[in-house]
Design goal:
This is peptidyl-tRNA hydrolase. By secondary structure, this protein is α/β, with parallel strands linked by helices. Helix content is 25%, strand content 28%. The strands form two sheets. A four-stranded mixed beta sheet has the order 1-5-7-6. The protein is globular.
């Protein structure tokens, strides 16, 4: 599960994917386990939920380059694109509304576009979190 955003701009609506992962890590009682992984240039933590092993990942790159971290982690942990969930902001959704999208285009989102390019696939599931328009 990759929370897309701008690492240096945490706490902004544009980095809501990272905030969702912080919340998920707290709910799974692994929030104290985040560690910087230099190989994939991201903060990572392993968790278990309903017998599933999860890798939570927050790229340490700008949004436009998040895909490089996601692709590196996919290679390190032997993940296929269809195993990956991207959590990202969506300007076209009202603040706080969420939707799940299975594959498809980036719909103008640079972080998703970066992931599609780096993974050579658009098969990732996306959790789109509404941030509304200013």
């Amino acid at each position: 599960v990759a929370g897309l955003g701008n690492y240096g701009l945490r706490g902004t609506r544009h980095s809501v994917g990272m905030a969702v992962l912080d919340r998920l890590a707290r709910q799974l009682a692994v929030a104290e386990g985040w560690r910087a992984d230099r190989q994939c240039c991201a903060d990572v933590v392993l968790a278990t939920a309903r017998s599933l092993e999860l890798l939570l990942l927050k790229p340490r790159r700008l949004m436009n380059l998040n895909g490089l971290s996601v692709a590196s982690a996919a290679e390190l942990y032997n993940l296929r694109p269809e195993d990956i969930y991207l959590v990202h902001d969506d300007l076209d959704k009202a603040l706080g509304k969420v939707a799940i999208k299975l594959g498809g285009s980036a719909r103008g989102h640079n972080g998703v576009r970066s992931c599609i390019s780096a993974l050579h696939s658009n098969e990732m599931t996306r959790l789109r979190v509404g941030i509304g328009r200013p």
